[in-house]
Amino acid sequence: MITNHNPVISLKKGDIIQSYGEYTILQGHILCRTGKHLIKIVQSGPFIVTEENFIGKLVQYQVRDNVRIARHPIVSTTDFLQKQGEAQQEMMQFFVRQLDIYTLPAKKRIMAFLFRMACDIGVFQLGDCYVPAILTQSEIARYAHCTREYLNGVRQDLIKDGWLVPGKKWILLDWARWEAYISGLTGGKST
């Protein structure tokens, strides 16, 4: 349970952060999602859980693995309200981005999803991007709105076409190529 009296909170997989406020992830990953849609994956750094009057309980912050977070006290209501407003605007942009991605054909939708995961949690090295195994293949397929079998077929095509490294890991080759391709799909906006 998260209260205002706990400066550092340890959470386990599946827990949902329900108290609004400003937090910093010290360890682990949190999935920001709504319904069957993954909005973003949050890792080490600050994030805001907005008050319910913005979008009710539509958005959930669900702990993905063992997580340690720090909850910041609200020192200035004005400062928090400004940060909350910025977080709400960002959330609306994420919703619009999700709608844009949802309209793409399945293969492009999968590529856009992989790109977005890489932007959220990827480790960049020598022009490529390694995406840690935070989600299972079944979860990636569910969030990309396709079957696991179709995802595996697309993965093989992406390997054959030089977009991914062969093997079980998700390593996106030639990051600049991915950025250019996704920018073309989304009309110049990176997802």
UniProtKB/TrEMBL annotation:
InterPro entries: RmlC-like_jellyroll, WH_DNA-bd_sf. This is Crp/Fnr family transcriptional regulator.
